[in-house]
User: Fold this.
Amino acid sequence: MDNVVRGFNWYFDAIDVGIALDEVTLPNLKRETEKFTPAGGMLSIDMPAAMESLSAKIKTKNSDPRRRALFGREPGQWITCYGYERLTSLTDGSNLGRVITMRGLLNEASEEAKAGLKPKGANYTFGSIVMYHDMVDGRSINRFDFFHPSQTLVD
Assistant:
């Protein structure tokens, strides 16, 4: 089995979330489609169109005012997020690095209910993503850039 995640870290700009990180759900890459039937044809297909907007969910084990302070920025005051993964092959023991870079806005910041002295976490939605870049071992897998569509890269 290849590409088993053996380590992961997350950054909001220069804010290291690593030790407080609980869970990250990366954006689903999904395209909108339009039903297309050629004239006189009997078979329809879903023709790919634009990409759907991207968003990521980040859950932490605590609430940090430095992270909450990122909420409320306007377009143009973009935040760059970085996710770093260490991937291991169980077949041959080799390691690869994966870097996910996204530029967008923190559109939601919510704290979980407090329960006595037990620490409760915070949930963040990172959306309005205008740039997404996924690299594995230095090779660009996907790159989507709202402001520079000519830099779009698929494999």
